[in-house]
Amino acid sequence: MDHTNSSAIALRVNGETCSLTVDNRTTLLDALREHLDLTGTKKGCDQGQCGACTVLIDGRRANSCLQLAVAVEGRAVTTIEGMADGDRLHPVQQAFLDRDGYQCGYCTPGQICSAVAVIEEHAAGWPSAATADVRPEAGPPRLDDEEIRERMSGNLCRCGAYVSIVRAVADAAGTHAGHGADHSADHGVPADESTKVTA
Ligand code: FES
Ligand code: FES
Questions:
Q1: Per residue in 75-109, is it b (16+ CB within 10 Å) or e — as a string?
Q2: How far is the CA of 68 from the centre of ligand 2 (A)?
């Protein structure tokens, strides 16, 4: 490797410090997959459009294909491999299982990382483009289906599992964030509607 174009860095991934030498142009996504063998994070478009590569950086979601590995040195990176607590799944992982929030599963790690951050963002009172009243005195918006779809709209699913994904996020928000979830999606949605809904 040409050391004028490479850097020795230490990444903090899922609570562990990993030392590696990377070409300065290496994305965080490629560092995770190709250098650290953390292949749970998926590459879809490699240009910030699909969300398959979503991870958490210091607790906030980010497309790892748009981050240079050298730029995240010292920051806390969480991937899908770091979500569970030992054998105990993260509540969002459990909700995706319970609700069949996937088909092929390729987008699922990114969906789950994004959903974890969505629930935190909502609990912190962050509005979205779907929030009707963004005045501080209006309080946090209800995390209804429209809010979930808007907040998850950066994560595409080629299989069209969106109805189940929305249900999973609503379930997890109800148990994890503890307030604001709208479980109306539990009722009256025919199974064949799943192909008609987009994020
Ligand atoms: Fe990063 Fe598609 S692979 S957004
Ligand atoms: Fe196949 Fe989403 S489950 S792309």
A1: bebbbbbbbeeeeeebbbbbbbeebebbeeebbbb
A2: 26
The model's pTM is: 0.86
For ligand 2, whether the C-beta of 107 sits within 6 Å is yes
Q: Of residues 118 and 189, which shows the higher confidence score?
A: 118
Ligand 1, atom nearest to 65 Cα:
1
Measured from the Cα of 48, ligand 1's closest atom is: 4
- What residue ranges define each of the domains in the chain, with the CATH number in brackets? 6-82 (3.10.20.30), 91-195 (1.10.150.120)
CA distance 18 to 10: 5
Q: What is the separation of C-alpha 142 from the centre of its chain, rounded to a whole number of angstroms?
A: 20
Asked if the model's pLDDT at residue 190 lies above 60, the reply is: no
